[in-house]
């Protein structure tokens, strides 16, 4: 089986309250990549259960993420949308990678330290080995590219390390079985966009997050037009007017965040936005941003609501996507077993 040349894999956790950061930092890029790549987009429900999930809520959140994908413009006919747990290769390959990755590699993962905090001993084993499952997600499809935010770059580097170690450890068998010099590609990151890291509306130094206590810190994809406008009006800023160039935003994290959000929503350059609004007070700029956000997000919210009202349709999309995903991943897993000497059907 030859390595694909232009295959993207990425996923979103179904942990509820999808927000503007998820949309601008991930989903809009997923939509754009459809033009040039074969795309496989996954609702990563196995990742979600590294912490306890209410079963009914997990199902509902899985459908909501799927609805957000479709409502935002991802085509489930031309590309693949599915939920992770429907394709067994993810979990099985993750175990194989548990035996390839080194403890020292995982101990360096900063996200585990941040999420486990002071309660490291009470964290699940799954939370610790999460990056190995992420590597399995990507390499089960021998994906060549992954759109990632800055906070995920370390995990993708681990994926590359795992791929390289597997290729090295089993080099002779890979060659003997006719797979060339290496079975797995060294997947490349795709980092792009003016708002790949959207910050909180209440604290410009913190990433927009569904876990932040104040709902005014984020714009949810389920918010109606009035709520979106209210949250933008209440967003923290400073007393100075907007500058006319980027240098004037240094040290003004909340102001810079709103400018980046405007640029991303309007598909404009930052300099272009500042050229238009430089010298304006924030009351003027916020009104323009609210109008833009509502115009961009309200149709997505309405379509998500329509899709979620028909869970049978969403389930059919996920089932069909899983069948197509499995048709790619199952032969890859069979190749891996052959390379490693694991007897299989």
General shape: globular
The ordered H/E elements are EHEHHEHHHHEHHEHHHHH
The strand order across the widest sheet is 1-2-3
Count of DSSP E strands?
5
Taken as a percent bin, the fraction of beta residues is 5-15%
Secondary structural class: mainly alpha
List descriptors.
345 residues; mainly alpha; three-stranded parallel sheet; two-stranded parallel ribbon; 53% helix; globular
Task: Give a summary of the structure in a few sentences.
This protein is mainly alpha-helical and 345 residues long. It is 53% helix and 6% strand. The chain contains 14 helices and 5 strands.
Can you characterise this structure?
The chain is mainly α. The chain has helices at residues 20-33, 45-48, 55-72, 89-98, 103-107, 110-116, 125-139, 153-169, 171-176, 225-233, 253-266, 270-277, 282-308, 311-340; strands at 7-12, 38-43, 80-83, 145-147, 188-190. The strands form 2 sheets. The chain has a 3-stranded parallel beta sheet. A two-stranded parallel sheet has the order 4-5.
List the helices and strands and how they pair.
Layout (H helix, E strand, L loop, with lengths): L6 E6 L7 H14 L4 E6 L1 H4 L6 H18 L7 E4 L5 H10 L4 H5 L2 H7 L8 H15 L5 E3 L5 H17 L1 H6 L11 E3 L34 H9 L19 H14 L3 H8 L4 H27 L2 H30 L5
Parallel strand pairs: 1-2, 2-3, 4-5
Helix pairs in contact: 3-13, 4-7, 4-14, 7-8, 10-13, 11-12, 11-13
């Amino acid at each position: 089986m030859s390595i694909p040349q232009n295959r993207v894999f990425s996923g979103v956790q179904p942990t509820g309250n999808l927000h503007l950061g998820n949309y601008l930092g991930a989903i809009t890029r997923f939509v754009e990549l459809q033009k040039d790549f074969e795309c496989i987009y996954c609702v990563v429900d196995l990742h979600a259960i590294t912490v306890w999930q209410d079963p009914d809520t997990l199902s509902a959140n899985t459908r909501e993420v799927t609805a957000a994908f479709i409502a935002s413009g991802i085509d489930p006919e031309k590309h693949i949308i599915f939920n992770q747990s429907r394709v067994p290769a993810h979990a099985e390959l993750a175990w194989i990678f548990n035996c390839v990755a080194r403890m020292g590699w995982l101990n360096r993962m900063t996200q585990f330290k941040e999420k486990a905090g002071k309660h490291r001993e009470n964290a699940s084993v799954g939370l610790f080995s999460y990056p190995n499952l992420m590597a399995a997600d990507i390499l089960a499809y021998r994906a060549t590219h992954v759109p990632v935010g800055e906070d995920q770059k370390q995990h993708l580097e681990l994926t590359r390390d795992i791929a390289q170690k597997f290729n090295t450890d089993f080099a002779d068998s890979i060659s003997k079985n006719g797979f060339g010099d290496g079975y797995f590609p060294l997947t490349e990151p795709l980092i792009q966009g003016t708002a790949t890291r959207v910050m909180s509306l209440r604290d410009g130094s913190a990433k927009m997050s569904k876990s932040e206590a104040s709902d005014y810190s984020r714009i949810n994809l389920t918010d109606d037009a009035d709520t979106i406008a209210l949250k933008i009006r209440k967003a923290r800023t400073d007393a100075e007017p907007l500058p006319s160039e980027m240098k004037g935003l240094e040290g003004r994290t909340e102001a810079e965040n709103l400018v980046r959000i405007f640029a991303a929503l309007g598909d404009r350059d930052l300099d272009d936005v500042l050229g238009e609004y430089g010298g304006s007070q924030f009351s003027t700029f916020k009104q323009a941003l609210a109008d833009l956000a509502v115009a961009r997000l309200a149709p997505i919210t309405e379509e998500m609501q329509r899709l979620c009202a028909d869970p049978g349709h969403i389930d059919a999309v996920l089932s069909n996507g899983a069948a197509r995903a499995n048709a790619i991943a199952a032969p890859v897993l069979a190749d891996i077993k052959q390379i490693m000497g694991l007897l299989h059907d």
